[in-house]
Request: fold
Amino acid sequence: MSTAVKPSLLPEVEAFLGRGRLASFVGGKAMGSENDNSIATTDPGSGDKLADVVELTAKQVDEAVDVADAAFKQSAWATMPVNERAALLHRLADAVEKHKAIIGQIESLDAGKVQSQAQGDVQNFADTIRYFADMAQHVNPRTTLAVKGHEAWTVRQPWGVCAFIFPWNFPFLLIGWGIAPALAAGNTVVIKPAEDTPLSAIYLAELAKEVGIPDGVINVITGGGASVGSALSANTKIKRMSFTGSPEVGRLVGEACGRNLVPVKLELGGKGAAVIFNDVDVAETAQKLAGAITFHTGQVCCDATRWLVQQDIYDEFVNQCVDQLSQVKIGHQLDDQTQMGPVVNAKQRQRVLSYLEKGQAEGAECLLPGGAAKVEGYDGHFVKPALLAGSLDNVAAQEEIFGPVAYLAPFQTESQAIEMANHTHYGLANSVWTSDLARAARVAESMIAGNSWINAHNVFAHGVPYGGVNLSGVGGGVLSFETLMDYYRSTSVVRPL
Reply:
């Protein structure tokens, strides 16, 4: 299960990491920290330091927002013809695609993501930018209203500065999902990447300047959440806010935005269920769910981490899953033979291991033990896949672990399966697995979540809204027309006749 191939870096990646301390990027230029503070970002697969990144002060965060606000009011970005803005965004997408190998390797190193998955994220970023750039060209900025006795219409305009705080599990992809509709609508953005994974965001901001995006339209500020993130969410010049992360921090961001009456979009993780009926191909379904739980080492908020299996195939399904997960090749994320890389840091590895201990202490049966993994030649944050089973009241079945751990429980009837799937405070994404498509639709519609998938998990198609309910968030989803419309404000104009 271990690999020991030492990866080689692209020359462009070595040059990027070899600059010394990496700065934030605001108003088209580097911004260093006024107090000379920095945060080290490390390779989760080796433990080696990749780079020092500046940590801005709260005052500098406010300065970055001022720059974005000035760019919105003074540059041509918000007022240029939408097709010209779309052309610039397409140019950015083209540049990202051209540099996909470089950005993918930076992302892989920084987040611990298997390199092929990281490059897939980069391609998704480019596709998302193009999708919203094209869609924005079909938005009618002026809509005439048929109102008796009045001449009336509405006009749509961009809001202004939109702020984004992103997590460490999908640093580059989620930037694309977040900023693409905001930029396409004519807003300017301030991006705060996670302190563990800031590198691809910095690279993107520099690339945006190279392709001709006006200075101040895309700004990246780096530092910790308690300092930089809180200062950003509290800034009164922000017009829209988006946060992806834990419910605990989401509450803080929501409170700060609430004080300023700023609309906020919160995507806060989940504890998804996969409901597996007895008419599935057991081996194929086990393979797909094993692939889902090991994708990016289980650090996926919408993943299926509760597997609810119809009783008469339960034992067979467990055996297939144990067999599949026992063969997963764990290794450094840049090794082409690796199927599952490390978790992002030592804290996250300890979190996964502690939940395995707490779950068993509360009575969970251990079907596959998991635990810390050793990879020859590397001192990384590696864990093995694990399977637990038992009561759904168990802490490991109720709380988000964010690692390659699934919790299994059997069910007898369809109604029982639905009740078990909804036995959670979260509500992000579930899936149902069956050859009976009528039943699949019935169950999918009955599960309390923002997303229900049929015979697949982790499905993200442009044009389909993606968002959560309950502890999984508020404020709508991404990847759809409705998302784009969130980034326009509407004014009604009326003249009595």
